[in-house]
Description:
The chain is 61% helix and 4% strand. It has helices at 17-23, 26-29, 33-49, 55-73, 85-97, 110-146, 166-191, 210-216, 226-231, 234-261, 288-311, 325-348, 354-361, 368-377, 382-399, 408-414, 422-425, 428-433, 443-458; strands at 151-156, 159-165, 268-269, 351-352. β1 and β2 form a beta hairpin.
Amino acid sequence: xxxxxxxxxxxxxxxxxxxxxxxxxxxxxxxxxxxxxxxxxxxxxxxxxxxxxxxxxxxxxxxxxxxxxxxxxxxxxxxxxxxxxxxxxxxxxxxxxxxxxxxxxxxxxxxxxxxxxxxxxxxxxxxxxxxxxxxxxxxxxxxxxxxxxxxxxxxxxxxxxxxxxxxxxxxxxxxxxxxxxxxxxxxxxxxxxxxxxxxxxxxxxxxxxxxxxxxxxxxxxxxxxxxxxxxxxxxxxxxxxxxxxxxxxxxxxxxxxxxxxxxxxxxxxxxxxxxxxxxxxxxxxxxxxxxxxxxxxxxxxxxxxxxxxxxxxxxxxxxxxxxxxxxxxxxxxxxxxxxxxxxxxxxxxxxxxxxxxxxxxxxxxxxxxxxxxxxxxxxxxxxxxxxxxxxxxxxxxxxxxxxxxxxxxxxxxxxxxxxxxxxxxxxxxxxxxxxxxxxxxxxxxxxxxxxxxxxxxxx
Length: 459
């Protein structure tokens, strides 16, 4: 297939080879070949409906595009010549069906063509990412169900704070991931309008039916303004932002997994299938998958910032700078999918050590709030109860003991309200079980949250 430029005619000299390579987006935009061909088919069908092209010509175009699509999917045809995927497909079509192939670009510009391709591609990828997120949610639900009663220390400032269940902790991340799905869905809703037919920037003199083409492509309508249709990349930024937030959540969970896997915690152990060793220290078992997710988060952030920076000074409508919108968002999509693909089985195969979690929960006076609540329920103002409990903690530290082992007579030195039932009230299992407020850490509350998650995944 000859590499003659589609825009040849006005130019007297050929494009310099270095400039040609610099200008080409084919190495990265060829991944959109399915979307480009889908958009072209819808455009051709619209041209036939409106009488702009003869039906016989459109039938030939459809046959040619169908063949190109099949050959590219099967690897018999590789997009390796041309400025971009749009030019490659059009040149290949013309090579296969002759002059009729040149009619396909009637009432269309590469500006609206690339805009529709990118929307179709990102819509498809967003739906795949949502399915990967649901797989991760299912893995979290499985572990949370198994550990709805498993007591562990909850932390603030990375200091032991109050007793919670491991299931409750995992479901906090499930809540984050459900919001991530919602953000992606919201971005797709705003993205789901067709720029096809906006042409270069001003629309066309042909009697087109943009709503029909939009309907064929599964869009909710056509972009209302042709200038905006070809120059809008808000949807790229929105998805880059949603994916950055998602990666932030995965990074936070990765950090906790890395900590929990350490010998200092020993709360969990990752499967050998999702860890690596050291080249020199034979005892090592490293949480490399979690560390990579944590590291790749910065990469996704960088892509988002680059996209914002590229777009911030562009006048309307299309500018070649906008070619830079693709590599960043493509890399983000690939990175997010890779991270989610490894994360779900890593969580599902993770071994939990409840005995180590419970041992940690017994230290650090994490039932101190329950001591204060005990006094408050007996009529003491909370601030007074808080002060007394703080003094009791200081006494325990001085005596090298804990609140559960402190003798009753010592408790009564600080308040006559203390009775023998205080030991039951500050038992860790009781402390957790009684946190029955909506969304709390009590096992029954955790099971309710699990049911909500199950219903969400099954809808």
